[in-house]
Design a protein that fits this description.
By secondary structure, the protein is mainly alpha-helical. The protein has helices at about 20-25, 30-35, 40-45, 65-75, 85-95, 105-120, 150-165, 170-190, 195-205, 205-230, 235-240, 240-260, 270-280, 295-305, 305-335, 345-360, 370-390, 390-420; strands spanning about 5-10, 15-20, 50, 55-60.
Length: about 425
């Protein structure tokens, strides 16, 4: 900047901010930092709405409250939506000042994705939004996040590598290796239940031990590293998938410790049964694949958001099951008309018939023989179809919305990864 005073004043919607030239030059917001390179007032007016040379004041006719929150991001590195302001309006302000959706906190990113999905902008990217009077941004001109210390920056990069598979090439490679180990572990678990497995294991005992040790070692190292890199250790411990990881890994080390102590697992009675049950918890490692596949993520997010509808569906089924099972037990066994149907000797036994009838499964192992029981069975099937269909519409719309949100998030990660590769 070759004109004006050493103190620059930014007037945003009537709120004034004073900065030195050096601060303007290194300002995290791209539009503000470009003011330092302006040599004439004409160049300045291309970036702001008006300029007062006497006071060296730059006027921006923008949302003052939104800029307050953007300044909080400049100072603290955390960017959140302004309460009471439309998410898309605030997003427009972000783009004006040179910020992108990636700078938002994760909770606000979800809100933005939901809002854009509601209005049908699921394929819209930042570069496709054109602001009046502005020129498109280039990757080199995009704003950089608030600077972190060397150690903090390295820890954050490592955390993203382990927690966000699409954040970088290294994260994708690490995720691919993790998926391979999960698949190998699942194959070993399924094969261990085959009748000929014990014979094959005795013939190649060393190979089986090595494969199992490598898989457990990988999952152990991954769990420990993710714990050390976690921002909040307590939240990490409380996460259900992390609890499953620990429960599934522990039996291996317990078994090894007991074997070294001369206590084989087969002779532990109840303790041995518990260990075998915990070993079967490894099947829940398949849930780890949700971090890498959009379909599983969509299913999990839909279930979390539709828990009220799922509870409502469960209540519908339970109420209908209680009514129909009581009537079925009465008609087939309780009235004592001729031969009694022993399959309906109790209401809990009749409840099994009700649930397989309402879901239209009909195994055929239990069925009514009286005329009243058959009429009741027809009513049970028809009402089951109606009751199960009622909440499906809400769940379906939530599933579609969740899919659009996750697809937008995946596309944003892909764009960031492409930019990283080009740089």
């Amino acid at each position: 900047m070759k004109f004006g005073k050493s103190i620059c004043v930014l007037n945003v919607g009537g709120t004034r901010y004073a900065f030195t030239r050096e601060v303007i030059r290194d300002f995290p917001l791209r539009r503000v930092s470009r003011l330092h390179a302006c040599a004439t007032e004409k160049e300045v007016l291309e970036l702001c709405d008006d300029y007062d040379r006497d006071r060296n004041e730059f006027f921006f006719d923008r949302h003052a409250q939104a800029f307050v929150f953007i300044m909080l991001y400049v100072r603290s590195g955390k960017l959140r939506f302004v309460p009471g302001v439309c998410e898309l309006s605030f997003y427009t302000e972000m783009l004006y000042w040179g910020l992108e959706s990636a700078h938002l906190d994760s909770c606000c990113q979800k809100r933005l994705d939901e809002r854009m999905s509601d209005i049908g902008l699921d394929t819209l990217s930042e570069g496709e939004i054109v602001l009046s009077g502005d020129e498109p941004q280039t990757p080199d001109e995009s704003v950089q996040p608030v600077a972190l210390t060397g150690r903090a920056k390295w820890l954050e990069k490592m955390r993203k590598t382990f927690e966000e598979p699409n954040s970088s090439i290294a994260a994708q490679l690490l995720a691919s290796v993790s998926v391979i180990f999960v698949i190998i572990s699942m194959i070993m678990l399924c094969a261990s239940t085959l009748p000929d497995w014990d014979t094959a294991k005795r013939n190649t005992v060393e190979e089986h031990r090595i494969v199992e040790a490598v898989c457990i070692g990988w999952f152990t190292a991954e769990c420990i590293l993710r714990f050390l890199l976690a921002r909040d250790k307590w939240d990490f411990i409380r996460h259900p998938l992390n609890i499953i990881d620990v429960i599934a890994i522990t039996p291996y080390y317990v078994t090894m410790a007991m074997a070294r102590a001369g206590m084989p697992g087969a002779g532990l009675g109840v303790a041995g049964v518990i260990l075998r049950v915990l070993r079967m918890m490894r099947v829940f490692w398949l849930m780890k694949l949700a971090r890498h596949f959009l379909g599983l993520q969509t299913l999990g997010l839909t279930l979390r958001r539709c828990y009220r509808e799922m509870v409502m569906l469960l209540v519908f089924v339970c109420v209908a099951m209680a009514i129909y099972s009581a009537l079925a037990q009465l008609l087939e066994h309780g009235l004592d008309l001729g031969a009694q149907n022993q399959d309906y000797a109790s209401i809990p036994a009749a409840a099994w018939w009700v649930i397989i009838s309402m879901t239209t499964v009909g195994y055929g192992d239990v069925y009514p023989v009286t005329i009243g029981g058959r009429v009741l069975g027809g009513m049970c099937v028809v009402s089951g179809i109606v009751l199960l269909a009622l909440p499906i519409t809400f769940i379906y719309h939530s599933f579609v919305q969740c899919y659009h949100e996750l697809r937008m998030r995946s596309a944003r990660y892909a764009r960031s990864l492409s930019t990283e590769m080009l740089q």
